[in-house]
Amino acid sequence: MDAFKPILNCLEQSPTILKDLIDNIPRNMTKNQRIPGKWSIHEHACHLADVQFMLIKRFEIFRDQQPPEFNPYLPGNTVSDHHLMQMELEYALEQFSKTREQLIDLVKTLEPSVWEKTASHPEYSEYTPMILLRHILMHDHFHMYRIEQLWLTNDEYL
Hints:
This protein is mainly α. It has helices at residues 4-23, 41-50, 52-64, 82-86, 89-109, 112-115, 129-152.
């Protein structure tokens, strides 16, 4: 599967990119909710750490179930947002690094037959291990972009 190697390389770098980004932000800014009703920098960063166990579980389901079936993960609806603000940021960054490594290790061990599976997921018209892998990459970068936006963008442009 040559297609997944560039994605895996990027996924391996996400924890370092996130930590470097967070290290540049004054800590007194991280919990500010600059847009009412939207997540803070802290919540975006902690969310990236928080979802890793769910993502690992999804790859295990792809590996172990025939046919694989998934339920939507909807922060604020199926999963409470409130715990993100209570998480300790440095710990979350460490956990993100460790669990991302576990996810990468798992993905590298998947048999070719797993990559051919198509799952049932009510949120998506198609759902495969490759789509999930690419989705994780886009998800990482979406939240890191939001973090940078909340850090640097002047209020009138948010």
